[in-house]
């Protein structure tokens, strides 16, 4: 997984502030592990988008059924009470 930083540049920067190469590489490994566990990928976003579309469709259908039921109930009440 590409995390947006170059390992060699990161190692140089850490060495510049006093870390040895082994420590610098361990920092990189930790950051990559964190990034792999916590960053969202384009694939994750696409799946989430698909789930939202599906949810929206189900909610639209349920709302339509509720409106249809309410209209039917109202029509029955008008017929019974106003009839």
Write up this protein.
- Helices cover 83% and strands 0% of the residues.
- It has 83 residues and is mainly α.
- It folds into two domains: 39 residues; 42 residues.
- Helix 1 crosses helix 2.
Tally the structural domains.
2
Distance between the termini: 71 Å
In round numbers, the mean pLDDT is 88
Strand percentage: under 5%
> What would you report as the Rg, rounded to the nearest angstrom?
29 Å
Number of separate strands? 0
Give the helix proportion (percent range).
over 70%
Please give the count of helices. Answer: 3
Main beta sheet strand tally, sense and closure: none
Q: Spans of 5+ residues with little confidence (pLDDT < 50)?
A: none
Q: What is the subunit arrangement here?
A: single chain
Listing every helix as H and every strand as E from the N terminus to the C terminus, the arrangement reads HHH
Structural class comes to mainly alpha
Shape: rod-shaped
What is the compact description of this entry?
This is CCDC90 family protein. This protein has 83 residues and is mainly α. The protein contains three helices and no strands.
Pick out its properties.
single chain; 83 residues; 2 domains; 83% helix; CCDC90 family protein
Secondary-structure blueprint:
Blueprint: H1 7-16, H2 21-38, H3 42-82
């Amino acid at each position: 997984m590409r995390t947006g930083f170059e390992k060699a540049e990161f190692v140089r920067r850490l060495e510049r502030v006093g870390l040895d190469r082994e420590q610098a590489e361990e920092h990189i490994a930790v950051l990559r592990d964190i990034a792999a566990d916590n960053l969202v990928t384009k694939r994750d976003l696409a799946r989430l988008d698909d789930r939202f579309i599906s949810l929206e469709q189900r909610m639209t259908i349920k709302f339509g059924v509720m409106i249809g039921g309410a209209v039917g109930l109202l029509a029955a009440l008008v017929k019974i009470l106003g009839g």
